[in-house]
TrEMBL record:
Lineage: Bacteria, Bacillati, Actinomycetota, Actinomycetes, Mycobacteriales
Keywords: 3Fe-4S, Electron transport, Iron, Iron-sulfur, Metal-binding, Transport
Co-factor requirement: [3Fe-4S] cluster
Top-level taxon: Bacteria
Region annotation (Disordered) ranges: 63-98
Gene3D superfamilies linked to this entry: 3.30.70.20
A Pfam family: Fer4_15
Secretion signal span: none
PANTHER family attached to this UniProt entry: FERREDOXIN (PTHR36923)
Protein name listed in UniProt: Ferredoxin
Length: 98
């Protein structure tokens, strides 16, 4: 598991430091600071997930290793796209004349 802390969103509730003090500490003003590089081993996952879920401003995010699949390419067609245009209806609307 890998996490990220957005300090600009933090409002200083300190819930994260309460649930997972090994991964979150509070600065002098009470705002959260991520301890370490954000990599969380499996044995600490529950505590960090509790901190993530309990954060009232959602300043903690889980970084996913998965990347979205690219959309499939459109099927090849020999059809002319201009053949499907309905120009007669558009002429009056847009003020075009032939």
């Amino acid at each position: 598991m890998r996490i990220k802390l957005d300090r600009t969103m933090c409002d200083g509730f300190g819930i994260c430091a309460k649930h997972a003090p090994e991964y979150f500490s509070l600065d002098d003003w009470g705002y959260a600071v991520l301890v370490g590089d954000g990599n969380v081993p499996e044995q600490d996952r529950d505590a960090v997930m509790r901190a993530l879920l309990d954060c009232p401003v959602h300043a903690i995010m889980e970084i996913s290793e998965r990347r979205p699949e690219p959309p499939p390419p459109p099927p090849p067609t020999d059809e002319d796209p201009a053949a499907r245009l309905n120009v007669d209806d558009n002429e009056a609307e847009w003020g075009f004349t032939r």
